[in-house]
Amino acid sequence: MEKIQNYINGKLVEPTSKTYLDNVNPAEGKVYSQIPDSDKVDVELAVTAAREAFSEWSSASIHFRTEVLNRIADLIDRDKDILAMAESVDNGKPVKLAQHVDIPRASANMRFYATAIQHFASESHQPDDQFINYTSRKAVGVAGCISPWNLPLYLFTWKIAPALAAGNTVVAKPSEITPMTAFLFSKLCVEAGLPAGVLNIVHGLGGKAGQAIIEHKDIPLISFTGGTETGKRIAATAAPMFKKLSLELGGKNPNIIFADCDFDSAVKTSVQSSFANQGQICLCGSRIFVERAIYDRFVKEFISRVDRLTVGDPSVEDVKVGAVVSEQHMNKVLNYIELAKDEGGKILTGGNQIKVKGRCENGFFIKPTVITNLSYNCRTNQEEIFGPVVTIMPFNKEEEVIEYANSTAYGLSATLWTENLKRAHRVSDKLKSGIIWVNCWLVRDLRTPFGGMKQSGVGREGGWEALRFFTEAKNVCINVK
Ligand code: NAD
Question: Are 283 and 390 in contact (CB under 8 A)?
Answer without folding.
Answer: no
